[in-house]
Every structure is written in structure tokens, then in C-alpha cells.
Amino acid sequence: MAVPSHKTSKSNKRARRGHIKLVAAGLSACPNCGELRKSHYVCSACGFYDGREVVKTSK
């Protein structure tokens, strides 16, 4: 059964919602060109992934 909202204190409510927050994306440097990219994703700047060119990019 749910507890009425006026009986839940502010500190209890905020403690329950403590894990709801924004987190920074896991960015790492591309070993080929040095641009920041998401881990385990193809680099949007050079098109390389795991040491080989996967996507052709125009430079």
C-alpha cells in the first residue's frame, strides 16, 4: 500500500531519489586520430574501429 505523500518527509523522499541523476558519457580518445568518442563505437572523425577503417570519411 502506498504511503500518503504528506507523511513522507523531504529527507526520506530525497534519499529514495538519490540515484536519479545525470551521468557523464564514457568518452575515450580514439587511438587513430585522438578525437574523443564513445567507447566501443566507430570514431565519427576518422571512421576507424579496432584498428581498421570501417566507415569511409571524406577529409
Automatic annotation (TrEMBL):
List the InterPro entries hit by this protein, alphabetically. Ribosomal_bL32, Ribosomal_bL32_bact, Ribosomal_zn-bd
Pfam families named among the record's database cross-references: Ribosomal_L32p
Keywords for this protein: Ribonucleoprotein, Ribosomal protein
Which BP terms in the Gene Ontology apply to this protein?
translation
Q: Which GO terms describe its molecular function?
A: structural constituent of ribosome
Keyword Ribosomal protein in record: yes
Q: Which domain of life is it from?
A: Bacteria
Q: Which GO terms describe its cellular component?
A: large ribosomal subunit
The record's section on HAMAP family has:
Ribosomal_bL32
**Similarity comment: family membership:** Belongs to the bacterial ribosomal protein bL32 family.
Q: Which PANTHER family match?
A: 50S RIBOSOMAL PROTEIN L32, LARGE RIBOSOMAL SUBUNIT PROTEIN BL32
Name of the protein described by the UniProt record: Large ribosomal subunit protein bL32
Quote the gene name from the UniProt entry. rpmF
